[in-house]
Design a protein that fits this description.
homotrimer; alpha/beta; Rossmann fold; 11 helices; 34% helix; globular; aspartate carbamoyltransferase activity (chains A, B, C)
């Protein structure tokens, strides 16, 4: 896969080699994100950070990643005031806005919209989420986190065992992550959800056709030797009614007691965030915050590294970043 | 006209010499916008990009223009949360906000508001549109585009023939553009609109008093030897009802077939954008996208150059920009 | 008080020595804000400017202060689209967002929210206002202004006389400012408000316990030898109804005539802004704009200096700022 000048629209673009390339570059970004040094390789470059659907954390993560490489960010949030609302086509919007920056990160509520936009764009477009369709940088940061966490235990993705829990039907992240995992060897999937919220058969087919083992179950039962427990949230907005969403509340609850009962002491806990921490949510309890295997905040930190890597690769500066190293002059908390 | 430290509020400020000065500077900005090189002449300068009325493309265009000169952008979007909504005067807002940047670009829904704001401002203010009143940078980018397009055909603005089509009553852009064209010699205007949406008599008077020729007609008829066809959109928001707006829909439709019938093969097609591309819009059809004379996206690209020129001129750096040239280290799509 | 790596959450953190330290650093920022020179000491640093409650002037002031030190700004405005609205805890939000910048300035509508957020943050957090609770940078800029204005008359804070007028019950700024003034010596307070809107007894106790003199009165009467007249606005949003707020309208009006009648020719007029300039507001009349003692716009200018100082101190660059001095190449209005 040639990244330079390319759009990043879907996890389907990636083969194993491409993923490992991204992850190698992401790893080289760590000293910059940790503020051991900084770089101005993209000094003067402009990111168009177009969030036609608002999302604070993903938007800021993209912007920060670009700033960490030395670039500037021009931003737009929301759809209601945009020309798109006045009937402008995605093609026109892309033709115009791609004249205002060097690269674009874009989120939009409609499935397929980012790819349609990319056709009109004269510069690389990175998909920051297009409705129920794709969110490739989330899948990549999830997989990067899995690799890092497993490496810390002396393991790697080949041969790993992942338990996915919760709403596996609507969860865009578990679909994309499963596709990426299928590019590796001998992965075991334990898919835990009620029948109504089961993993779609297309994903199951992909898992099966790539020769991986999987178990489908409705309950979290017995003792699982999973390396990763990937918990999802109830996507309330995808259910016909709040009542229907509520009936699944708490069925996939994870707290320290449930973790101890069903998982190993080394099992890493992941979640796409945000987690609902209201008392009635029963999703991923705060008592897990003290558990060193709770990797949810390492996930978001890793998101910055992965996005830096994608910017560096698509703008063709991945091999020269360190030629522009600078010192950090301010105090950094250790 | 002395630009240094001045406000840019209205096309009425400009004489022919001033326009040509702006256009010469704008032309020098092209290598920066095309990323053949970059400049940091405004490194450390701050633009206050105050869009009290949202407008994605104009806002981002101003911000990008400032970034391309090396400066930073602080931004505000919308009116509802601002102090203006709590009864603060434009004078107070200007006194306060002009302490936060080196120059201001401002859009506001009320006619006259930007000029009123400028009276309280301690730094230059560039009008980014004040309701139905003025949008001088749009007029300048339109005229700059006309000059560039005509030069490509070996012609120039003196002696040109422009057809303006559509809602000439409410279209702020055609009013301002007409005023600027009147500063040149022997321009011919063909003004095509239904009587109800005709060009205001004040603009007609200006055209007549400056000795230019014009034709007023209700229909696009026969063969026009126009150099420029400037198509406008129905400003739905200015009509008493949607029904009233709808009765004019399609009356000024331009597609490849109509273009071929009424215009020359060299006639340049312009439009202030956004264009409505919904099936029922019948405004400027997508089949024109393949027509090399469709200049609408060159217009928005030129907008960045013109805004860069105005920033450079008002901040007095127009003659030293290239002293701060830097290399572009990232991949640029050709 | 050790500023490096610390949160700035409340005026209660400050003793007299700390305040004087902040003010000394703020004073050194003046040449940068006046554009006599610039600095890039924070080149590459990122401010997370998180305004979960919108506030144009405070938000832009923080962003500008960071830009003036050479840093970049990532921003968020409003609460409705944030993860907080989906039930994410302030702790989670802080853990995530503190991975995206080097320092955070935050405003939030709920009292105590910024301190709660700070507990989860891995980087310094500066309180930009948490509902009715605290807005420490406003109190510091008010006090800095008082010091500067008094020094211009050959006086200082010790021994000064301040008249506070208006809604002293709901005015967060007068509470915080009073606390800070109590750290100095022999301050005289004249507190003018109707009984229903009187200064809370907790603040009165603080004034009394620190040995300062105060007078409480319902009317602006006679001649006051106040050095400072601090006028407040009716906080309409804190009253049960608009009617209740309206009954106090005009009771604390200040215009040139009232000023001349009750104050000395040297009395400095301050106000936390925005002031309501609508005809019916009767708050702080525009005829005072010509009065050289009207310091309200010097207050907002000083806000930039104080925020620059707090950024420099918490990031530990206060002593090296001038090592990174650069020339200003653009025209600056004198």
């Amino acid at each position: 896969m040639n990244f330079k000048g390319s759009h990043i629209l879907s996890v389907n673009q990636f083969d194993r080699e491409a993923i490992e390339h991204v992850f190698n570059v992401a790893h080289q970004m760590l000293p910059y994100a940790k503020r051991q040094k900084r770089t101005n390789v993209l000094d003067g470059a402009i990111l168009g950070n177009l969030f036609f659907e608002p999302s604070t954390r993903t938007r800021v993560s993209f912007g920060t990643a670009f700033n960490l490489l030395g670039g500037e960010v021009r931003e737009t949030t929301g759809l209601s005031n945009s020309a798109l609302a006045k009937g402008e086509s995605l093609y026109d919007t892309a033709r115009v806005l791609s004249g205002y920056s060097d690269i674009i990160a874009m989120r939009h509520p409609d499935a397929g919209s980012v790819a349609e936009f990319a056709e009109g764009s004269r510069i690389p477009v990175i998909n920051g989420g297009d409705g129920a369709n794709e969110h490739p940088t989330q899948a990549l940061l999830d997989l990067y986190t899995i690799q890092k966490e497993l490496q810390a235990h002396g393991n790697n993705i080949d041969g790993m065992h992942i338990a996915m829990i919760g709403d596996l039907k609507h969860g865009r992240t578990v679909h994309s992550l499963s596709k990426l995992l299928c590019l590796f060897k001998n992965v075991r999937f334990t898919l835990i959800s009620p029948n109504e919220l089961a993993m779609p058969s297309s994903i199951i087919d992909t898992i099966q056709n790539s020769g991986h083992k999987f178990t489908i179950t409705e309950q979290l039962e017995g003792s699982l030797d999973a390396d990763i427990c990937y918990q999802t949230r109830i996507q309330e907005e995808r259910f016909p009614s709040q009542e229907e969403a509520n009936q699944y509340r708490g069925k996939f609850r994870l707290n320290q007691q449930i973790y101890t009962k069903h998982f190993q002491s080394k099992t890493v806990i992941m979640h796409p965030l945000p987690r609902d921490s209201r008392a009635e949510a029963n999703e991923l309890d705060n008592d897990l915050n003290l558990n060193p295997n709770l990797a949810i905040f390492r996930q978001t930190d890793n998101g910055v590294l992965v996005r830096m890597a994608l910017f560096a690769l698509t703008l063709g500066v991945d091999t020269i970043v360190s030629q522009f190293d600078q010192k950090v002059h301010w105090h950094v908390n250790s």
